[in-house]
């Protein structure tokens, strides 16, 4: 989703549908989101963060599994990096059941915004984030980490936004607490471009 060369990030979309999925989209597969968002600071440069809140956070540890009970998601997480053009990688479109963590960012439970990307359709099949838009404030999300700990999050908000206005700073930028973002596509499916028009973004906070 976002990465500009030289430490920033640009947005890249996912093959997915969240709130509204057309039959044509599922039959035809979906396509990568086009467009970019303004660059935001890299995790390293973002260590000069806002004042720290009193709420505890966890030490850095890579995520291994994502659980979202409300929508029946229980999935192992792959690592995502940057493409050659500086955009963020997404899971393979022919494996829509996969989800991936953006490994150049924060880990879930660490102070900052950890980002997990997933598809909703691909290859004529529903994907891992097919029902992401059903999440509501107060819903539980948990991430099992490499050190054996579980980072438990509570959904704060769910946003649908046009891809041309992707909120890169809010998704990837530094925080004064441990946050989590789940990102996929939503809105209508444009047959001409092969893209969904919007993104669905879930914002959650460590309990």
Automatic annotation (TrEMBL):
Which Gene Ontology terms cover its molecular function? hydrolase activity
Note one Pfam family from the annotation.
Answer: Sortase
**UniProtKB keywords:** Hydrolase
InterPro entries the UniProt entry points to: Sortase, Sortase_dom-sf, Sortase_F
Highest taxon, organism lineage? Bacteria
**SUPFAM superfamilies from the xrefs?**
Sortase
Signal sequence extent:
none
Keyword Disulfide bond annotated: no
Q: Which NCBIfam families match?
A: class_F_sortase
Spell out the protein name for this chain. Answer: Class F sortase
